[in-house]
Amino acid sequence: MYGSPVSDSTLRPAECLRSPETVMAPDIRTNMFVGQTTPSLAVHHAEIDAIRLSAAVPEPIAIQFETARNLYLYAWHVYRFYMVAEVQVRILANVTDDSGPS
Questions:
Q1: Beta-carbon neighbour count of residue 95 at 10 Å?
Q2: Predicted confidence (pLDDT) at residue 85 exceeds the cutoff of 80
Q3: Is 92:51 a contact under the CB 8 Å cutoff?
Q4: Contact of 29 with 14, CB cutoff 8 Å
Q5: Within 10 Å of residue 46's Cβ, how many Cβ atoms?
Q6: Separation of alpha carbons 42 and 45, rounded Å
């Protein structure tokens, strides 16, 4: 273990485990990058749903891509999931680059 244990009282509320009552609320940072309209979960979902892979993509890659899309969707609730989703996509990009013809 490194250093002292971290308690919920030392973290900002947005970084802590959500309670059952707040788990479905958007992360407070969700509204940071808003244009003229307030974002909605439905619009966020539609934007993610518009990103598709070809049916020719191998199933293991498609499953990992769907994992990234779900992480991006749930980032609505947990802002730090955006970075995890991006890492997942970057890993997939490297896997697909490495699996192509030499």
A1: 13
A2: yes
A3: no
A4: yes
A5: 10
A6: 5
Q: What is the pLDDT of residue 95?
A: 79
Total residues found in the chain within this entry: 102
- Cα separation, 18 vs 14, whole angstroms: 8
Q: Model's pTM, two decimal places?
A: 0.78
- Rounded Cα gap, residues 6 and 8, in angstroms: 7
The DSSP call for residue 77 is T
Task: Give 8-22 pLDDT, tens digit per residue.
Answer: 578 888 889 999 999
Per-residue pLDDT reduced to its tens digit, 39-66: 789 999 999 999 999 999 999 999 999 9
Amino acid at site 4: S
Q: At what angle do helices 41-49 and 59-74 cross, to 10 degrees?
A: 160
CA distances from 65 to 14, 74, 77, 92, 102 (A): 26, 14, 20, 7, 24
Q: Six-digit token pair at 68?
A: 């990234």
